[in-house]
Amino acid sequence: MANTLRIHIIITFIIACACVALIVASFSTQLWIEGQIKLTSSSLSWTNDINYGLFSGHISGTRGFSVKGELTMSCDMSANVCIMSCQTTEELRAQELHNVTNNGMWTGCPFSRAEIDTCDGKCTEFIDAGMWVSSVLFLSLGLLGSVLAAVFAVVNSTVSPIEPILSVPGLYIWNGASALCTLVVLILWGTLYLNTLQDNIAYSETMTGLYSSEASLSVSYWLLLVALFLEIGNICVLVLRKYQLAHEPPPPTVKMDENTDGIIFLY
């Protein structure tokens, strides 16, 4: 059965490979969030560009001097908070996160000449750690689903497995699971953006209000939307294949005349 209308299976393989590439690109790039931060405590007009992904980011611009630095996601799971930190070591990032979550104090970035600033208590505009972990988890599961969809598309284009999970019905499962996981990530990160990141980019220098920020969802996020449409498209290809199989004319049958001359037919 799997070899019937094999072209459809091959098409799902190509689409699944495209989904894998898109999800890997989204995972590894630093363009989930893109925005600017502006100095708010001075008459000077300094604007820096900032972008980051699920794990790291980058900041550049001028503040009377050139600013260029790498950012790293820093999380405190016990407090359920994450920020994009400008600190260069794990120890410094942990100390910075502890400070802003407990006494609101921030001590500046290695590439900056800013002085100590404070939230006057506790900073509040953080990335929700649970949503961040869930995004990473579901994106990983979505990637796994697309990989399995590609692998079993190759299998079903060459042989006909007996087990349903390994055969064409399994392709519905892998593509559907990948689409569902991708949709969950889009919803999680979209909600996080609407609730927090569009007005406060959750970068360590903006936590105290010394800098204001504005941000938008960027390329890495929208790649997942393309992947979602492709995953749904794969399911549509499989449904089309099922429809065409159901409406194929039955194979011709050979009607044997009655054996009147005593000849015995052996099959």
TrEMBL record:
UniProt-listed InterPro entries: Clarin
GO CC annotation terms, alphabetical: membrane
PROSITE patterns according to UniProt: PROKAR_LIPOPROTEIN
Membrane topology: Multi-pass membrane protein
UniProt keyword Transmembrane helix present: yes
BP terms from Gene Ontology: sensory perception of sound
Localization terms from the record: Membrane
Keywords: Membrane, Transmembrane, Transmembrane helix
Domain of life: Eukaryota
Transmembrane annotation, as ranges: 7-33, 136-159, 171-194, 219-240
Family: Belongs to the clarin family.
Protein name: Uncharacterized protein
